[in-house]
Design brief:
The structure is a single chain. With 183 residues, the chain is mainly alpha-helical. 54% of the residues lie in helices and 3% in strands. It contains six helices and two strands; from the N terminus they run H-H-H-H-E-E-H-H. It has a two-stranded antiparallel ribbon. Helix 3 runs antiparallel to helix 5. It is globular. The N and C termini lie far apart (45 Å).
């Protein structure tokens, strides 16, 4: 027997891709469990990356792609001069503020994806040396790219967190799920 899966359910393409995006978002969020602002901003390796900086970067990156797909201006767009600020908290920015900002972006992304008629709908890519001239991409490509981008940084977050205090992604998943390795 074949059953119909409602649009947006985890078993359909939209739902499946959104679930993969959310899984990678969760990996970044979990990397921050139990850390102070100072720990989240620290750079325990030769890299310039910090957990709070990665959080800000993935949130702003998702917003940028969402605005491109919506064909709306992005009030948080970066320039060459401000690019480095997308990888660090500045001024009075905090991890909780960035988490709240990203949650709003994520909700807007999901609402937008559910509103498009088809995953084949396209939007124009901006002019950049790394994009084809007059290029377009589909909503499907957008979500796959968000999985790719967020997963790449989730891997960075795993290394940074383990360098900070030895806690692994598995331990953080268990903690977030209410499990403890204590008997």
């Amino acid at each position: 027997m074949v059953t119909h899966v409602p649009a947006g359910a985890p078993g359909d393409e939209r739902g499946a891709l959104l679930s993969f995006v959310e899984a990678q978002r969760g990996a970044i969020r979990r990397s921050l469990i139990g850390l102070t602002e100072e720990q989240a901003a620290s750079r325990p390796s030769a890299s310039e990356l910090s957990l709070s900086g990665l959080l800000k970067h993935v949130a702003e990156t998702e917003l940028n792609w969402l605005r491109l797909a919506q064909q709306r201006p992005n009030d948080k767009a970066r320039t060459e001069e401000t690019w480095a600020d997308s990888f660090r908290l500045v001024g009075d920015e905090t991890v909780p503020q960035m988490l709240e900002f990203w949650a709003k972006v994520a909700a807007e992304t999901e609402e937008f994806i559910h509103s498009v008629e088809s995953m084949n709908d396209t939007f124009p890519l901006p002019e950049a040396p790394w994009f084809p001239k007059d290029g377009n991409c589909s909503m499907r490509w957008l979500l796959v790219h968000l999985v790719e981008e967020t997963a790449r940084h989730a891997g960075h977050a795993d290394i940074i967190r383990e360098s900070l205090d030895g806690r692994t992604a598995f331990e953080l998943v268990a903690e977030a799920g209410g499990y403890s390795n204590q008997s």
